[in-house]
Write a structure and sequence with these properties.
The complex is a heterodimer of chains A (295) and B (563).
Chain A: H1 9-15, E1 25-30, E2 35-41, H2 61-72, E3 76-81, H3 82-92, H4 105-116, E4 128-131, E5 160-169, E6 174-183, E7 186-191, H5 201-204, H6 210-224, E8 228-234, H7 235-248, H8 250-262, H9 264-267, E9 270-273, H10 277-287, H11 291-294
Parallel strand pairs in A: 1-3, 5-8
Antiparallel strand pairs in A: 1-2, 3-4, 5-6, 6-7, 8-9
Helix pairs in contact in A: 3-4, 7-8, 8-10
Chain B: E1 4-8, H1 18-28, E2 33-37, H2 40-44, H3 50-60, E3 64-68, H4 84-87, E4 103-104, E5 111-112, H5 119-142, E6 148-153, H6 175-178, H7 180-186, H8 190-208, E7 215-220, E8 222-224, H9 229-237, H10 243-253, E9 259-261, H11 270-284, E10 286-290, H12 291-294, H13 299-312, E11 323-326, H14 335-344, E12 348-351, H15 359-364, E13 367-370, H16 378-391, E14 394-398, H17 401-405, E15 416-419, E16 423-429, H18 445-458, H19 470-479, H20 494-503, E17 509-510, E18 513-516, H21 522-528, E19 533-535, H22 544-547, H23 554-558
Parallel strand pairs in B: 1-2, 1-10, 2-3, 3-6, 6-7, 8-9, 9-10, 11-12, 11-13, 13-14
Antiparallel strand pairs in B: 4-5, 14-16, 15-16, 17-18, 18-19
Helix pairs in contact in B: 3-5, 5-8, 10-11, 19-20
The chains are: A alpha+beta (295), B alpha/beta (563).
Chain lengths: 295, 563
């Protein structure tokens, strides 16, 4: 079964909201030395500003930066030429008539960021930049969980694998679930599980016990023909972990999640199934100081 | 006109057991209308009868169902619902004037837009409509009392444009039509393709459902967030689209759109969401939003919005635009239409044909302005004159050689000429046929503005109050307080509110504005007898203020924020 058949982007965004940047930055698209569109990246909790400089001439980026930094309290200004952005996109898109090999929207966005070198300034960057901090501080970060296999230890796990995430709200008796498909370290696709011939109600009534989780993993491996790992987490812990990432960063979110795991015997708020040692090591690695080296 | 919220359900993403749960939640909030985009590709391969099941369940819950049957970007289905195999053929891909394919970057994927009028696409769309009508009829055989609206939107054509290109380079040119010679022969233009596509779709559906009273076919042009490069930049950066951004888009699109579709409001907080919904309702009266976002609104707010909607439905209301401007390309209107737009603001709406103007709207129209009227044929011209007499509105034809040609046939008929770079001709038919005769004379550009003013005066369609005086404005608001008011949004209300303190009647509750007497301390309590503080919540405003936003300078508009 093809995972990309049941991609619900809005659900993905709801479960994995991107993390706001630390600083305010202005990003503008220019065409014939004129701004045709712009947006402002806002830190968590900051009041949202409206970019209103459309059709403003931008011959000199230094003066533009000075003006914008005062008006929007921005720490940097990035100007991308429309043609450069369009060319980057065209290079990444398959020519008309050929199927798209990476149908995930999130992956496309990441690829475009990489091609433009937006995250890290280098000589090949396709944009002009002025500011007193690096661009990466003004860009939103992906949700911490989507980088789960981005470590050396994860290389010990199978190359292609699935990760099921079930978020259970016992108060509302609801289950929000998503299956992520990874190739090596990268998230390449996601899908709604269809629970065909599987009694999904057993997962919602109470927090699942290890036997129920193992039963589910067996079903998923048979259904999708790929090694599957599953994580069940309570809605409260998931919300808190996401807020931790917003406020204190990536490592803090993982640390919080691992703390929740250690108390899960009592609270039944976090469950991993199966739990081979490399997978356990992957989870703990993200909360450790070593994770800083990777990000 | 029926005013209300439409809760959009992405039924193809939901498991069968999830739909009744969602409907129960919506019903509990007093929602009466559910809608859905019908993805073309999904219906073609719908072996599980998802659409039929969705319709049946909605009818069982006694919802009115609105199905949008034309493709649109950002509906949550890959390729905007267009079948993948159509996009694999280069001749089916839409192109702009520079010959580049036009891409949509709106989630859930990036893809080149299909040209809806390419022969293969057009034919295949006909098959889709056939299957759709079969599905709907199947449902109607069991539930003959069901209320179903089939919405034929033409908003997809808005996306035929790459950001940065001028409106004249607005696309929709498949390689077949890209040849300039062919353009010239066929007189191909975006408005024409819109008309062809929409008229045929509506004709087809009307013929299929002519015996079903409960099925309405309605045209709509949705105000949708662009899927072009601006959306891509927002998504790459991860910038959040704020409530004032939405408002600004609603405000500026109102002259050529008549409904709103917001695909994702999840990043907006509850207060912002209230503002977006109420201001959208106020401007358009027809707001489509995902069911999950609608469920974030409190029942109290929804019931209040429902009450206002009920009071506005049917009778003459703010959503009516008394001036219709018929143009070739809604994105690149001629100079006279531009001046009209500047003068009238929200009172003018742009149409590409009279086809999508309901009779009710025509009855309330005061002026119909036809741009580039030289392209209309004699029988169309006569039909227009006939319609003018019937509905008693003023008709103004711009650049019409027919007017001159018809002089011999229509007695007492003269044209009004002004001279700019080339000769303009304007013919006016005020109030159903009594001809206005103005001697031809030469003029300069400034006279064009005078001409527009003259046209508006003849049509009795002058713009509403415009003033720089806050006092005049406050008086104006008060004089309208007994009419229907809708919740909405106000830029920097404090300026006007200060004036309102002295003008407003001391009423405890006036719809749309909440008045509180300030009693914080002894000193204030004494002053309260004389002083009334008017607090305008972010979702409460008088619509007429929108007409007067011009009085706020650009600096205060820049600082526009939720109050």
């Amino acid at each position: 079964m093809n995972l990309s058949d049941k991609q619900n982007w809005y659900k993905y965004k709801r479960i994995f909201p991107s993390c706001n940047p630390r600083e305010t930055g202005v990003f503008a698209l220019s065409f014939h030395d004129k701004i045709i569109h712009g947006c402002i990246s806002n830190p968590y909790g900051a009041e949202l500003e409206v970019f209103s400089e459309r059709d403003t001439p931008i011959e000199d980026i230094n003066s533009a930066y000075e003006a914008f930094s005062q008006r929007y309290n921005a720490r940097n200004l990035t100007v991308i030429r429309r043609d450069d952005l369009l060319k980057t996109v065209m290079d990444l898109m398959p020519p008309p008539g050929e199927p798209d090999k990476s149908p995930s929207y999130a992956k496309h966005l990441q690829d475009i960021r990489k091609s433009l070198s937006l995250d890290k300034q280098d000589k090949n960057a396709h944009y002009e930049f002025r500011g007193d901090i690096q661009n990466e501080h003004c860009l939103s970060k992906p949700h911490f969980f989507t980088n789960i296999f981005n470590s050396i230890i994860a290389d010990l796990l199978p190359e292609q694998k699935l990760l099921y995430l079930g978020i259970i709200d016992e108060d509302k008796q609801s289950l929000e679930s998503i299956i992520l498909e990874f190739e090596g370290r990268e998230l390449i696709s996601f899908s709604d599980p269809d629970f065909a011939h599987f009694d999904w109600r057993s997962l919602t009534q109470t927090f699942p016990n290890p036997e129920a989780a193992a039963h589910f993993v067996m079903w998923a491996e048979n259904r999708y023909q790929l090694p599957t790992y599953s994580i069940f987490v309570s809605a409260r812990v998931w919300r808190e972990a996401t807020v931790y990432q917003q406020k204190s960063g990536y490592r803090a979110a993982w640390k919080y999640l691992m703390q929740a795991r250690s108390t899960s015997d009592l609270n039944r708020e976090f469950l991993i199934e199966p739990e081979p040692w490399p997978f356990r090591a992957v989870l703990y690695w993200h909360g450790s100081a070593a994770a800083n080296l990777g990000f | 006109m029926e005013v209300g919220l439409t809760s959009v359900v992405r039924y193809w993403d939901l498991e069968p057991h999830e739909i009744p749960i969602l409907f129960q939640d919506l019903k509990a909030r007093g929602i009466a209308v559910v809608g859905a985009w019908v993805p073309w590709a999904d219906l073609e391969s719908d072996q599980n009868f998802r659409l039929r099941r969705f319709l049946t369940q909605a009818i069982r819950f006694q919802f009115k169902v609105r199905l949008s049957v034309t493709p649109e970007v950002a509906i949550g289905f890959p390729n905007g619902g267009v079948p993948n195999d159509l996009l694999r053929k280069a001749e089916n891909i839409a192109q702009d004037r520079s010959g580049q394919p036009i891409y949509s970057f709106a989630p859930p994927n990036m893809y080149p837009l299909v040209n809806l009028v390419a022969p293969q696409v057009f034919q295949r769309f006909g098959h889709f409509l056939l299957k759709l009508s079969q599905e709907v009829k199947e449902v109607l055989t069991e539930h003959f009392d069901a209320e179903i609206d089939l919405i034929v939107g033409d908003s997809f054509f808005k996306h035929y444009r790459t950001l940065g290109l001028s409106p004249e380079d607005h696309g929709d040119y498949a390689s077949l039509y890209f040849q300039k010679e062919l353009d010239a022969i066929r007189g191909w233009n975006p408005a024409q393709s819109e008309r062809t596509f929409r008229v045929r779709a509506v004709d087809f559906l009307q013929s299929r459902f002519e015996r079903h009273q409960s099925v309405n076919i309605e045209p709509r042009n949705f105000c949708v967030r662009s899927g072009s490069l601006e959306r891509l930049l927002d998504e790459i950066v991860g910038s959040e689209h704020s409530a004032p951004d939405y408002f600004s888009r609603f405000y500026h699109s109102r002259d050529y759109c008549n409904a709103i579709w917001c695909d994702d409001l999840s990043t907006i907080n509850e207060l912002g969401l209230k503002f977006v919904v109420s201001s959208g309702m106020m401007l358009y009266g027809d707001f489509w939003l995902p069911a999950e976002d609608l469920l974030r609104l409190s029942p109290k707010f929804l019931s209040r919005l429902g009450q206002i909607g009920d009071s506005l439905s049917g009778s003459e209301n703010y959503f009516d635009q008394s001036v219709l401007c018929m143009v070739k390309n809604p994105f690149s209107v001629a100079r006279v239409s531009q001046i009209l737009r500047e003068k009238l603001g929200l009172r003018m709406s742009v149409v590409t044909s009279l086809f999508d103007v309901p009779d009710l709207k025509l009855e309330r129209t005061k002026l119909l302005f036809v741009e580039e009227a030289l392209e209309i044929e004699n029988d169309q011209f006569r039909a227009l004159i006939e319609q003018t007499k019937q509905h008693n509105y003023t008709l103004a034809l711009f650049r019409s050689s027919l007017c001159q040609r018809s002089q011999a046939e229509l007695p007492c008929f003269e044209t009004f000429k002004i001279k700019h770079d080339w000769e303009y001709e304007v013919a006016l038919f005020p109030e159903g046929g009594q001809l206005l005769i103005i001697d031809g004379h030469e003029s300069t550009l400034s006279n064009m503005e005078e001409l527009v003013t003259r046209i508006l005066a003849v049509a009795k369609a002058e713009p509403m109050l415009k003033t720089n005086s806050k006092r005049v404005l406050a008086n104006f608001i008060c004089s309208h307080l007994d009419k229907n008011f809708v919740t909405g949004f106000l830029f920097n209300p404090s300026d006007v509110v200060e004036e309102l303190q002295y003008t407003l009647p001391r009423t405890a509750s006036i719809r749309g504005i909440e008045i509180h007497e300030e009693e914080q301390n002894e000193h204030d309590r004494l002053r309260a007898e004389k002083r009334v503080i008017v607090q305008v919540p972010p979702y409460a405003v008088v619509p007429v203020l929108l007409q007067n936003m011009e009085f706020l300078n650009s600096e205060s508009q820049r600082q526009a924020k939720l109050v």
